[in-house]
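Whether sequence alone determines local backbone shape is best considered at the level of individual chains. The sequence in question and its structure tokens are set out directly beneath this paragraph.

===
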Amino acid sequence: MFADEALVYDSRLASQALLEFEVTSSLKKAGVVQFTMPPGHPAYNGFVSLRTLLEVYRDERLIFRGRVLYPSDDFFNRRTITGEGERGFLRDGTMRPYVYQDSPDVIFADVIQLYNSQVDEFKRFEVGEVTVTDANDYIRLESERAEQVADTIDKLVDRCGGYIVFTTNAAGKRVINWLAELNYSSSQAIEFGENLLDYARQDASDELATRIIPYGAKIETEIERTDETTGEIIVETLSEYVTIASENGGLDYIQDDEAVALRGVISRPVYWDDVTEPSNLLAKAEQFLASSKLVITTLELTAVDLSALDKDIDSFMEGDRIRVASKPHRVDEDFLLFERTYNLLNPANDTVVLGKDKTTLTGSDAAGDKAAQNELNKVKQEIIADYQLNTAVAVAEVETLLRSLIEQTSTAIRSEVSETYMTGDELTEYIGTQLTQLSDSFEMTFTTLQQQVDENDAYARDQLQKVEKYIRFVDGDIILGETGNALTLKIENDRIAFLEGGAEVAYITDRQLYITDAHFLHSLRLGNFAFMPRQNGNLSLVKVG
């Protein structure tokens, strides 16, 4: 690791040892570096917040470039430094109020040029490859207020898609690229039982809509009228948005009937400030609705990068497409790596997080239920057809198919089979017997479980009553002692009190003991001195330690 080109850490140098060292690189946001130094580290005081440039290399490959944020020290003066990736530099430039009406690549290049004119040399970027396009090769982007360059770049990405990727050119200059797709496929796979650590799936859609009301550009029209009193001609300007009413049978909205039937009317207004023709606005609205009606199912995986253990294995990098195979999760397809974490002190703990968005009208659960139901209907029709041809063959196929489906979706198969009836006494009786046995076994297991729960609940209640007999919580205080006993101990927020018959006889507070009456049977010791009774009945103060 280098700080302003000065070496501050090398894993081969014991004098530069760190206590923690981790880098997280991300495809969708600025990366993060965090490391902890002992008080005697040579670079302990060598960082300037928001100014020191950090570069971290692993096996000669740059895995982080950014700047130091603010340090923090713990009780033992161990200093933790946190840094943000170079995408965070874009917050240092300001975009004054602007209006763009051009292709995405032209707007992107101009924004970066304005940013470079405001910042220090080490924060500047050359514009590299831009593969993001617009269907019309023309977008309108504006802001009536000044904003950070980072916000403008985020608007462009939200509007047109793609990914911001940083590289280094042959001259050693940092380059900012805006890529529509990332097509590199890693030869290393992630497989269940080998390097897959975690799997999660979530259905969501922040902008879900079944009906949208599109608005285009604001059109200003001048009209003339005569003042009735003075006869003077007055020119007035009327402003109104372009709508689709003239191209849509008088309606200013469109909806997806299938989505409305499923979820009801969920209406959203959508604006396209650069569209002036109602026909073009209708086309954009239809395209937007086609995606906004869908539920996004996001799959996120966490896995170990095996290249940290074997240098011959292709290393994972953000933006890679990686094959994931997990039979228990019914997954075997490519995912995009959008975040990875390097544990530079223990490479075996490196992890990667991958994701893939799937869009459906119903979402993953409903889609799965529908698929299972279709499969069951198919099974039923096959059973009926086979029975007409050969009863014996049908019995064998029924047993095989039903056993398979019971393992996959036990609840669904039980409800379906209960309605499956066919002619032929032998076949009907055989299937009914098998399913009755399966049903009984499930019911029996549940009944046994319920009995165990009831028994454990009764035992737990009995034990709780015993505890409550000796320990009670009253108005935030703890009372120790058997219920009805004359002597009890009361623990309050700032004191411990001893009570007899409900009256306080002694208490401890502020590291001091207070006693109403004290009776010492043998001696009273104060530090190294004690009052000791003599055989003649006198009391002497003697040194005892």
